[in-house]
Known about the structure:
By secondary structure, the protein is an alpha+beta fold. The chain has four helices and six strands. It has helices at about 5-20, 20-25, 50-60, 120-130; strands at about 30-35, 45, 65-75, 80-90, 95-105, 110-120. The chain has a six-stranded mixed β-sheet with strand order 2-1-6-5-4-3. The longest helix is centred in the N-terminal third of the chain and has 16 residues, at about 5-20.
Amino acid sequence: MSQADVDITEQFLKAFQAGDIETVFGAIHPDCVVDEGHGLPYAGSFVGPAGLQDLVGQIMTPMEMTVDTFQVSDGGDCAVARIELTFTSRASGRALTIPSIELYETTDGKVSKIDVFYKSTQAIAELAAE
C-alpha cells in the first residue's frame, strides 16, 4: 500500500460524502468488488460501477445514508477507513449512527475492492425493515 492508494481512497470517500456521484463512479475500477456482510438486506458481492449503483440503490430505497466522518490510514496491504455513517429510515424517520471499518484496495489508480464491516449489521437490518 502506498500513500497514493490512501489518497485514492480519501478522494473516493470525500466524493461519496459530498454526493459527487460522477467522481465516485469515475474512481471505481471496472472489476471492483464491494462485499457487504451477512445479515444485511443488501448482503453480498457487487461488481463494477453497475454493482455499486445496484448496492447504493438497495441501501437508499428503505433508508437515507450519509457519511458523517472518516479517517483513512495505510493498513499495509490495504487502506483502512474508519467511518461514521448515519442511516435514516424513510418509513419511520428514525436515525441510526453507526461506526464502520472499510478495507480498500486499489488497482491502476482506482478503487478495486471494498470490504465493509459495520459495528452492527442487525441494527441496520432492523432499521431497513421499518
